[in-house]
Description:
There is one protein chain. The protein is α/β, with parallel strands linked by helices. Helices cover 47% and strands 9% of the residues. The chain has helices at 14-17, 35-45, 54-57, 64-81, 108-127, 150-171, 195-202, 217-222, 227-236, 264-277, 295-321, 323-332, 348-356, 361-365, 371-382; strands spanning 10-13, 49-53, 87-89, 132-136, 141-142, 176-180, 189-190, 211-213, 244-245, 283-285. The chain starts with 9 loop residues before the first strand and ends with a helix. 37% of the residues are buried. The protein is globular. Residues 136, 180, 216, 244, 286 line the site of one manganese (II) ion (MN). One manganese (II) ion (MN) binds at residues 136, 180, 216, 244, 286.
Amino acid sequence: MYEPRPEHKFSFGLWTVGNMGRDPFGEPVRGAKTPVELVHLLAEVGAWGVNFHDNDLVPIDATWAEREKIVADFKNALDETGIVVPMATTNLFTDPAFRDGAFTANDPAIRAYAIQKTMRAIDLGVELGATTYVFWGGREGVESDASKDVVEALRWFREGLDFLGAYVKDQGYDLEFALESKPNEPRADIYLATTGNMLAFISTLEHGDIVGVNPEVAHEHMAGLNFMHQVAQAWEMGKLFHIDLNDQWPGRYDQDLRFGSVSLKQAFWLVKFLEDVGYDRPRHFDAHAYRTADYEDVKAFARGCMRTYLMLEEKAEQFRNDQEIKELLSQITADDGTYAFWRGGYTADKAAQLKSHEFDRVALGGRAQPYERLDQLVVDLLLGAR
Ligand code: GLT
Ligand code: MN
Ligand code: MN
């Protein structure tokens, strides 16, 4: 039970299981593993997919010949293990060139370089099978609002994405973009801070038809938001192209903790939502193991992410089939049709009928809802008391 299978589409980034435990206060604690070794590690724990930034795979200063050798070795590892590449992305934040951002850097040379680097990284991702391309604008922001015009920065961002969207179509690539928001870190403030901001921005893009979102649990929790609600809105708009699963205490630095390790109840609502609606794209764990871990513990971390997801999926199934919960839900959502008359679109007659209808406001205010009982049933269920 709770064994990951390919149909679960569990994926990890090379940068997640390959994270060496460096933080702003400390040096790496785990030795580097090659991309090939990491593919084998992922196969060992039962993952389905591996994602990467261009430079997780090919160093930024590699020659073309070096790139070709790295790509060939990586493809061999994929063939040997059956691991697939569902998603790729560009590193537009590590190199000092991107200290003021990439698509929104004030320097036009940096903006042009960011577009060039992304086109090359798109080619690399597509060559390895990626069908989703993530844009996380980690440095697209400011420390001082004296330094950048927000409206101008958004226009630069749009110009870049429109250019790249046209590039993808021009190449005939089967690739969609997924925009990932984050409110801060590494910049003091990052533009388009939440998934909601991204959804609004997408509607202004020339090639918005191939652009969706990649919400991350930790990033919305940093902003104090209900992650599942963000995901649900993206889903309802047909824009949930990818998802970054991890965990995070609100109001802190970006922790990228093991999925479900902090906010189990929120994780339950999320898994229940994804399973209820039939989300069938990758379930990507963008998290990393504690700095105290060795690679054995890194495997325990990766297995834990997937196991928790599957346990919560089982709980979601139990929720759906629980007789008492079902009865409460049908009581809560009961509708005898009395008020169907105004629905299904406006007409002048309906407006007149609704305006003249007599409501017993006091009686309406006296109606209770058994949400306490319902929520406690969920707690009982999650704690194994049902
Ligand atoms: C980085 C970031 C993540 C993004 C990755 C993709 S890189 O680790 O913290 O949230 O998804 O660029
Ligand atoms: Mn994160
Ligand atoms: Mn992420």
